[in-house]
Amino acid sequence: MNTHDVIVIGGGAAGLTVASGCAQLGMKTAVVEREHMGGDCLHYGCVPSKTLLHVASQFRNAAEVERFVAKRNGFPVELKPDMSAINSHVAGVVGEIAHHDSPERFRSLGAEVYLGAATFRSASEVEVDGNRLSARRIVIATGSRAAIPPIPGLRETDYLTNRDMFSLTELPRSIAVLGGGPIGVELSQAYRRLGSEVTIIEMAPRILPRDDDQLAAVVRTRLEKEGIHVLTGDAVTKVAAEGRKKVLTIGSGGHERTVETEQVLVAAGRIANVDQLGLDSAGVALERGVVVVNDKMQSSVPHIYAIGDANGRFPFTHVAGVEASAVVRRVALHAGGHVDYSKVPWVSYTDPELASVGHTQASAEAEGISCRTIIQSFSAIDRAHAEESADGLIKIVLDKKDRVIGTGIASKGAGELLGPALHAVTGKWKFARFRKALTPYPTMGEIYGRTVSNELAPKLFNRRTRSILKALFRYRGTGPIEE
Question: What is the pTM of this model?
Answer without folding.
Answer: 0.93
